[in-house]
Amino acid sequence: MKAFILGLFFTLITISLHSQIVSGPMLGTNTMREVHIWVQLDREAEVQLKYASLEEPEDYHYSNPVRTSFDHAFTGTLIAHGLQPGTTYSYDILVNEQPLELKSKSVLNPTDATQTDDKALVFRTQPLWQYRSAPPDFSFLLGSCLYTNDPQFDRPGRPYGNSADTLFKSLSNTEAEFMLWLGDNIYLRTPDFDSKTGIYHRYTDYKSKDYIQEFWSSIHHYAIWDDHDFGPNNSDKSYIYKDLTRQAFMDFWANPTYGRNQKGIQTAFRWSDCYYILLDNRFFRDPNDMPGSDVSILGEEQLEWFKQQLISARGSFIFVAIGGQLLNPSKMYENYANYERERSEIISFIQENDIKNVVFLTGDRHRTELSRLEKEGAPTIFDLTCSPLSSRSYEERLPENNTLRVDGTQVSEQNYGRISVSGAPDDRQLKIEIFNTKGESAWTRTIKAE
């Protein structure tokens, strides 16, 4: 009897010490040879990927193990390496060499469901098409301004965010290869701004919502930030905890890289025949009311890097993600028009160097609209603002006179977007679709590559 009680005691101790998942796994960076997968646990442990292609399911491979720690909110980004292009892999998360019990499992590509268990975790690498075939058609989702209510820390009164259950069901049911988060992906609250505890609580609260777990593992995710995940409302480089929020961003997202010289979060990646430049509009930003006209959003070093990326980019379309509107000429709120010198320099650089098919992807404004800048003899530039996902939406509160807005594209309710790139190599086009949170179409526009 004593032996039985003692054995039961140690069994209970073992169970109580078993790591549990808090959020994830989330699919991040996807290339032909590597895929990044993020996960958050509830305690310190050794976490590792075990993966195999569907063609050779018994030929398992393992990622290098990562040790989760309190300092990084028990998060870890695992890298599946040595992969083959255009190949589907199933994977498990191992914690202390044991399979992790997950909150939710989903198949990445429904066409593969017949090849594996319908609850298997899978990912598919990008295909090697260059010099072999036409560029693959693909789609990606986008959106900004996701406010998840937290009554304990929210302002009293009407909740600022709407329930996101329906939104994420729609997102999960909208076919795409990846999601591009355009900033204000979380909203730091007043108690969060001045402590690591507050900042990491806000990220954990957001990423661990039950209704979002399936979405994390169903497609890949890339992100930038804006003021509310960088710091307080309309924050800039004077925010003294920006190094802390930068570390939190790196801990909770699985982007390809994070800034340069341990500053900022800018990066770039390629998908099919398109190039993506992800900019940081906060870390280097001068205050809006800084005296003088030579104020900057990107800062000199990032602006030079951005120009280099534009010049060297090769692709049917070049997508530039940045938190706030660039083309809108109205000097209101935080529009780039308030930074006139730098805005003009960017636009002139694109026009003078004949860089075609540049599409800015922006958020921030709590409404959606498409802007278009045309100049005779120069390439057309577009700016798709897509906002908000679940935070409060607004009509124009003051007449902005955005003379570049494409008629019929303003949406003043919660929404998300999908961009699909398709067509023959010499006739590529992108299709922009905006949906409400129920997945119902708000508008569609098609842009042909110049």
Q: Your description of this structure?
A:
With 450 residues, the chain is an alpha+beta fold. It folds into two domains: 17-124, Immunoglobulin-like, CATH 2.60.40; 138-448, Purple Acid Phosphatase, chain A, domain 2 (4-Layer Sandwich), CATH 3.60.21.70. Helix content is 19%, strand content 26%. The chain contains eight helices and 21 strands. It has helices at residues 2-16, 165-173, 196-207, 213-218, 227-230, 242-252, 299-312, 340-352; strands spanning 21-30, 35-41, 46-53, 61-62, 66-67, 75-80, 88-95, 98-99, 121-124, 138-143, 178-182, 220-224, 267-271, 274-278, 317-321, 358-362, 369-373, 381-385, 415-422, 429-436, 441-448. Strands 3, 4, 5, 7, 8 and 9 form a six-stranded antiparallel sheet that branches. β7 and β8 (98-99) form a beta hairpin. It is globular. The relative contact order is 0.12. Residues 1-16 and 106-117 have low confidence and may be disordered.
End-to-end distance: 81 Å
CATH class of the largest domain: Alpha Beta
Q: Which range best describes the helical content: under 10%, 10-25%, 25-40%, 40-55%, 55-70% or over 70%?
A: 10-25%
Name the poorly predicted regions. 1-16, 106-117
Instruction: Give the domain tally.
Output: 2
**Number of DSSP E strands:** 21
CATH topology call of the largest domain = Purple Acid Phosphatase, chain A, domain 2
CATH superfamily of the largest domain: Alkaline phosphatase D (PhoD)
Shape: globular
Beta-strand share of residues: 25-35%
Class from secondary-structure proportions: alpha+beta
Order of helices and strands: HEEEEEEEEEEHEHHEHHEEHEHEEEEEE
The average pLDDT value, as a whole number, equals 92
CATH architecture of the largest domain: 4-Layer Sandwich
* Quaternary structure classification: single chain
Number of helices: 8
